[in-house]
Amino acid sequence: MEETSEELKSILGEEALKNLPITIQLMKKMKMNEDPNSIMAFFNSDFHGSDMHHDAGQYKPISTIHNE
Amino acid sequence: MNNTHSQYFLLYASCIPVKGISRSSIYDIQRNCLRLIPNLIYDVIKDAENRTAGELKKKYNNEYDKEIDIFFEELIEDELGFFTDTPKLFPKLSLAWESSSQISNAIIEIKEKSELNYNSIFSQLDDLGCTSIELRFTGSPTIDFIEHILTACNRSRIVSISMILPYADQFQIDNISYLSSKNLRVNKIIIHSAKENKKISNNYMVAKIYYTTNQLRNSSCGQICKENLIINSDLFRESQKYNSCLNKKVTITENGDIKNCPSFKKKFSNIKVKKLKEAITDAKFQELWHIRKDDINICKSCEFRYSCMDCRAYTQDPKNRYSKPLKCSYDPKTMSW
Amino acid sequence: MILILCESKDLSVSEVIDWISFLGYNYKRVNTDHLIDGNYTLKLNNDQVSYQSNSITDDISMIWYRGGSEVSSYKYPVLEKINAAKSRMIYNSMKMEKKMLKKSLYDNVLEKEWLSNPLQIDKLNKISTLRLAKECGVDIPSSLITNSKQELLDFLNEHKELIVKPIYEAYDFNLHKEEIYMEYTSSISLPFIQKLETTFFPSLFQERLQKEFEIRSFYLDGDFYSMAIFSQNDSQTEVDFRRYNTEKPNRSVPFKLPENIEKKLNKLMRTMELKTGSIDIVKTKDGRYVFLEVNPIGQFGMVSGICNYNLEKIIATYLIKNEKWKKQVKS
User: Three-state DSSP class for A31?
Assistant: First the structure.
């Protein structure tokens, strides 16, 4: 069942938390993705289409000249 | 299990069964993996698509009720399928494949002091909507020259670049990492004919860097092996109608010849005299784009046929355009590599 | 021409733009998070707006509005040298200033065809949407906003299981670079309620629905593109599927909403004057289709990719068609 995390109590203060919305009291911690593949390489996209993450359009290798 | 008697068992739409000559596969194109199953199970799954569990068991004369129950339980446990009262609300996944690119990927041979105008080539590729390129360098290019080439791709639709370089003294790891960190579009750098084999990839770099002692030539291409199989939605759908390697691909050689791939002898004009757009819209140029795995001898009966890169350059019988790729050692009949 | 107002990092927009170009049409993209550093000028005396030295008022007849985050202000000096209270004050006033800056852009191009109009979107909120949904005959979760422990206990008694969610929208803050605290939809139990004070900060409570699966439906001018998400298989995502399980994503498949449900939802969208949006629905184990909320600037990339609906092309085609129509009407 849901409970206020001890860490959150120490960050915001137990008494202060009691006066905040219940959804704040029940906030959950999430780890940001540390997977190297998740590095987001965004480029300047002003007035341009596909300046986006490098993975886009890469669902297969261009050649099989090199085996990883 | 009585409560499922009147229900339908469906595979999740992204789990697609594919029949081979000796066994079948379930392609899971949401989680990108593949499950091998006996052909008998393939038939049961297909029969279950338009029958309730009760009707299905009856079809098999109620001789395998227990086996069928256990089998469905396993598939549910592995999250490959589910029971439903309303199968009509769960349409199949459309296998259509459409692309907003006229050319999606390109291989470009590059040498320093070439008479080719690389800026113009990249700009033409950009106009065609090309997203991925492989740069095959020859000779011993300087770091400055490579940077100059990469800069030409900035602010273009080309968002993933792999580079193949023959080993030279200037390609020490520091220089290569520097290139990679300055050019986020680069996602793979392969240095061949190197002194040792090593792989460098870490959290701080977009690109993976490989040093290999092998000498890579055009004829090194076309390898199909267990380790190279790729399971994802795009490749699965693209290979239903198109060639998994050559579709929307173009090659420009060192001399500017326009080809389907570097391993072919056949040229379609030269970039010095023809616009890329004209060359690639020629029906002859696109002919090989339409050779599907389902058309190729032996491959058409293979359970892995929508997960490999085909090869039309090196085939078992060069006279037969539907011949199996030369460098694939898998025999779907005996199921051995 | 088509004008696109969006965030610089909106990848779905880039994909739609690729289709617009492929189909041979022109567009202008304005990244509203870069209004400060992106060279934005509004000349009130002749109604001219320009961005990156390009006019965005001339020759535009269709605008695609993708919302987007706050205007970024990283070029502004750090206010650390003044005391915390003063810096908060300046920060708040900057926030309003930036909001109005964005509004100045919308106001000036209002006479166009929109997908969807930001002024219309600004009028909506979670509670009013639920009320409108009910009026349109759409099933909604039994909901209660209260600050009273007794009311909450009675509500629990009636529904057995409850959830709590933000009245406005989910808030988050960074702890470190790698860790983030987020508000989610949470289930709450009797022991938790018993520990509450007699009165507390008013919160939104709803009956906890027994899910068979969730449905996310992308709506575009009368058409529904729906996806069923089997989030109940995974306890990590059971209550709120935004708590993504990245290693093993929830099973998600194309889904066809029953016709009578689509009809009512269509009525709701038309009542709200929204031409597009992402609609969240729960299909309960006892057969109800319960509407949760609509996001007028919904993310459609996931539904499009997993279900292969190719919404990027469908949206591009829609924008082109309506741009042509609006142009004809004008001339």
Answer: strand
